[in-house]
Specification:
Elements: E1 7-9, E2 19-21, H1 65-79, H2 91-98, H3 100-134, H4 136-144, H5 149-181, H6 194-220, H7 224-230
Antiparallel strand pairs: 1-2
Helix pairs in contact: 3-6, 4-7, 5-6
Length: 231
């Protein structure tokens, strides 16, 4: 690459600042968090650019951290007994902490979504139960004229799914607008991911069908003679 072999002055263009030569290019890194944009970074020798804050030692191993930490401490102290080793932490914990705020927000929104789904299921059940009760005479007439119980059950389920489909059409359109405002809370996830939309739609339809099972069963249990007598 054209930048390899070039010399740069550390700390700006001043006579007392050391020079360094670019010997390699690495990929983009998220220095300040997984959800932050990448910024220009450079790996420098400590002798060229010493820092005042404590150094960090990264260790990759398949050994359990509880067994690895004492071994690392002994190795460091064998080189310098005056070195202070503190705050051992797993890389997974560091990565998780960078997304803690977003994870909390998304969990909170997910909780609200689950509550809304439960309320929708209760509302669907209530509306269908009321509809079946009001249409008892109609259902009795249908069954007296030869309608099978399975036909009555499918009629109730079909009406429930039809109303839900209309609501989903409106909800999907609204969600595409609302998710644009949530773009800043997402990490490596598209606000209009087709797989997520399909999964949500399938879940809502399944919940609606489950909520309509009991009202549909009640509709199929209506005795035509009793329904006609009520009329």
């Amino acid at each position: 690459m054209k930048t390899l072999g070039k010399r740069i002055q550390l700390g700006g263009r001043q006579d007392d600042k050391p020079w360094a030569e670019i010997v390699g290019i690495v990929g983009d890194i998220h220095q300040y968090g997984l959800d932050t944009p990448t910024t220009p970074q450079a790996y420098l020798l400590y002798t060229q650019s010493p820092f005042s804050y404590p150094g960090v030692l990264l260790v990759r191993s398949t050994v359990a951290p509880s067994a690895l930490t004492p071994a690392i401490n002994e190795q460091i102290w064998s080189l310098d007994k005056n070195t202070l080793v503190f705050n051992p932490v797993l890389m997974d914990e560091i990565m998780a902490n960078t997304l803690a705020q977003r994870r909390f927000t998304m969990l909170l929104l997910s909780g609200f979504g689950i509550v809304a789904l439960v309320l929708a299921a209760i509302g669907t059940y209530g509306v269908l139960s009321c509809t079946v009760a009001q249409r008892t005479s109609e259902i009795g007439v249908r069954m007296a004229l030869g309608a099978a119980r399975s036909d009555v059950g499918r009629m109730v389920l079909r009406e429930a799914l039809l109303l839900t489909s209309l609501a989903i059409s409106v909800g999907c359109g609204a969600s595409l607008l609302v998710t644009r405002a949530l773009r800043g809370l997402l990490f490596e996830v598209s606000p209009s991911d087709p797989a997520i939309l399909v999964l949500v739609v399938a879940g809502v339809l399944a919940v609606t069908a489950f909520s309509a099972l009991l009202p549909a069963w009640r509709a199929t249990s209506i005795e035509p003679t009793l329904a006609l007598r009520q009329e």
